[in-house]
Amino acid sequence: MKNRSIFFGIIALVIVSMLAACAAPAAPAIAVESAWGRVSPTIAGAGAFYLMIKNTGSGEDKLTGVKSPACGMAEVHETVKKADGTMGMNLVPEPVAIPANGQVEFKSGGMHVMCMMMKADQFKTGSKVDLVMTFEKSGEKTISVDIRDQ
After folding, report:
1. DSSP character string of 48-70
2. Which of 42, 61, 113, 126 is the S-S candidate for 28 at Cβ 3.0 to 4.6 Å?
3. Alpha carbon of 22 to those of 27, 60, 89, 136: distances in Å?
4. 30-73 residue pLDDT tens
5. SS in 3 state form for 78-111?
6. For strand 128-135 and strand 46-55, is the pairing parallel, antiparallel, or unpaired?
7. Are 47 and 37 in contact (CB under 8 A)?
8. Which residues 6+ apart lie within 8 Å of 73 measured at CB?
């Protein structure tokens, strides 16, 4: 009788261990908030998008691409201070990590989505344009962006 109880106890532990190993992996929960855009004051034919990406999930995600029908090409850029003291922009070559239970801000003077070969008829103050953001785990998210002066 005692051996039988030990046997069933071991079987129960094995089953619980197997179920724990099959549990769903940590998943991200991505939301894009406070999105706005503007025509670049310094680069002709270009604009920029600013926004906040929030991840309320338990797993990290990565922003792997951006595009907009209002742009001939869109890329993630970061504003940097050059050695000579002037400001410039660098392409962010790697996917942007969005940590679990964290957020990443795209803001003026920092990381932003650069809209190049901008379609001026679509990228006007007061208009709205779509921005499609592609995430490694969450897939594509299309957001509507307000275009404004500041």
Report:
1. EEEEEEEE-SSS-EEEEEEE-TT
2. 61
3. 14, 19, 45, 22
4. 999 999 999 887 778 899 999 999 999 999 999 999 999 999 99
5. EEEECCCCCEEEEECCCCEEECCCEEEEECCCCE
6. unpaired
7. yes
8. 116, 117
